[in-house]
Write a structure and sequence with these properties.
This protein is α+β, with helices and mostly antiparallel strands. A hairpin with a 7-residue loop joins strand 22 and strand 23. The protein is 13% helix and 17% strand. Helix 2 runs antiparallel to helix 3. It is built from 6 helices and 24 strands. Among the domains are: 118 residues, no CATH class; 65 residues, no CATH class. It has a 4-stranded antiparallel β-sheet with strand order 21-24-23-22, with no helix packed on it. It has a 3-stranded antiparallel β-sheet with strand order 7-9-8, with no helix packed on it. It starts with 30 loop residues before the first helix and ends with a strand.
Length: 469
């Protein structure tokens, strides 16, 4: 299993799965033909511009859903409008105001990968990381990644969250949100407060990685089970290490030299093309995204592994194959195989355009077709008209307020635009000042508040508040 990057995905909004790249327009072809258009790489396109970010994201997301058989082609426009509207409420207004600056070429690569197939998985984490440089201190925000400092929080006496500055040397700090600037750490000071001080240099004593400029607090030659004897700096080749605490650095890996070894030790990472053994979490291959397949370290191009080839994730297999059956209990490898066909028992994910219902792969229904439970495609709902009619069909109209909206009953259908699904029932979104549920932070975007934020109040409860975009 390849070492995983820490992904800061803008795609937290919604990413449905797979989009067509290249080929004729979806409006020109049948649903069956459309599935074959998911291929990598996407034909060359210019970098994404700020004013087209949301429309291009919506295009990729909805073409993906259609090419994988999850969306009726007739609903593509409705899909793009809904996705773009949700994106505009958060990213569009900030891009228009110049609060966020987009890496257009990187965004194009990210959207192309969304459009390439139904299982982008770990490849998406690599392609879509850090699409924006972040807004300056004082700008309005909803998520940490909106900010250059990566700290979006409510300052004292403020109602709405804003991007917070990092604390300089000597300034008061805490675990959140007053975080120290680069090269500094938060340390206890006199009077019960904490201040930002310079991190320890190599060779100085330490207890945890975050105390060190090198980012590594290495173990002593013989680990005594505590912090004594540990020093800042990358451990040399052959030195004791811990796969959990780190210490070896990015160009090395912490491995057990033998099953009966007294401790793990630092080893040089394996270069591309050299022999390797597939491991549970980190194969030891050199380079971001490199992994061990067929006994050698490789960088796998998305959707390139043929039928029967060894794989670790489905994005590595040719579309529409899936990676099955990976040994999820030890996170090693699987094989690129065909999906379960219509009418087959769901021993693996079903063919594109199908879903597993009652243990059997059954086709998703299009608008006007008879349906039951969650058999309708996205933006459709299974219902009858009149309500008491015996035959249910997939309908394009949104679910009205007061009606059932849970997935088990209606599938991917949506409530009306001014409503949200509240414990399985479509309910009108709340107005400013109405109570809402706020979670760990002092604020959070919440469906019940619509375009407003749910902000914690002095009494500990939440209230829907209109904040600047």
């Amino acid at each position: 299993m390849a070492a995983r990057p820490t992904a800061r995905l803008f795609v937290a909004m919604l990413c449905w799965g797979c989009v067509p790249c290249g080929g004729p327009s979806p409006s020109d072809a049948s649903s069956d033909a459309f599935h074959s258009w998911c291929r990598w790489p996407e034909p060359a396109r210019p970098p994404v511009q700020a004013d087209e970010y949301c429309s291009e994201y919506a295009r990729a997301t909805c073409e993906q859903a259609a090419c994988c058989g999850w969306l009726d082609l007739a609903q593509r426009s409705a899909c793009q409008a809904a996705v773009a509207s949700r994106c505009d409420r958060h990213y569009g207004v900030k891009l228009d105001a110049g609060q966020l600056h987009i890496d257009g070429a990187r965004a194009r690569g990210c959207f192309g990968l969304i459009a390439a197939g139904c299982e982008p998985g770990g490849a998406l984490a690599l392609a879509c990381d850090r699409l924006f440089d972040g807004a300056p201190a004082g700008a309005s925000c909803s998520f940490n990644n909106d900010c250059a400092s990566r700290v979006c929080a409510r300052a004292p006496a403020e109602t709405c969250p804003t991007c917070q500055p990092l604390v300089p040397l000597g300034g008061e700090c805490d675990d959140w949100p007053r975080l120290c600037d680069e090269g500094l750490r938060c340390a206890p000071a006199d009077g019960g407060t904490s201040t930002c001080v310079v991190k320890y240099a190599d060779g100085q004593g330490c207890a945890v990685n975050d105390e060190c400029l090198a980012g590594r607090c290495s173990f002593p030659p013989v680990d005594d089970g505590g912090a004594s004897g540990r020093t800042c700096g990358l451990a040399p080749i052959g030195a004791p290490c811990s796969s959990l605490a780190g210490g070896c650095g990015p160009s090395r890996i912490c491995v057990w030299p033998a099953p009966d070894a007294a401790y793990a030790e630092c080893r040089v990472r394996i270069r591309l093309g050299e022999p390797c053994v597939n491991q549970s979490f980190d194969d030891g291959c050199e380079g971001l995204g490199a992994t061990c397949l067929d006994g050698h370290c490789v960088n796998v191009a998305p959707y390139s592994r043929p039928l029967g080839a060894e794989c670790e994730e489905s994005w590595q297999c040719e579309h529409p194959l899936i990676c099955w059956e990976p040994e999820w209990y030890n996170r090693r490898s699987g094989q690129c195989v065909q999906r379960a066909q219509l009418g087959a028992i769901c021993t693996r994910p079903c063919a594109l355009g199908a879903t597993c219902l009652d243990g059997i792969c059954q086709p998703l229904r299009s608008a006007g077709e008879p349906c039951s439970s969650r058999l309708c495609k996205k933006f459709l709902r299974c219902s009858s008209l009149p309500v008491a009619a015996a035959v249910h069909t997939c309908r394009t109209d949104p679910i009205p307020n007061g009606s059932v909206c849970d997935y088990a009953s209606v599938g991917w259908a949506s409530c009306e635009s001014s409503s949200y699904c509240n414990e399985g029932i479509c309910t009108a979104v709340k107005a400013a000042g109405e109570p809402c549920t706020v979670w760990l932070l002092d604020y959070s975007p919440a469906e019940e508040c619509g375009a407003l934020l749910c902000v914690r109040q002095p009494d500990g409860g939440g209230s829907c508040v209109e904040c600047p975009p």
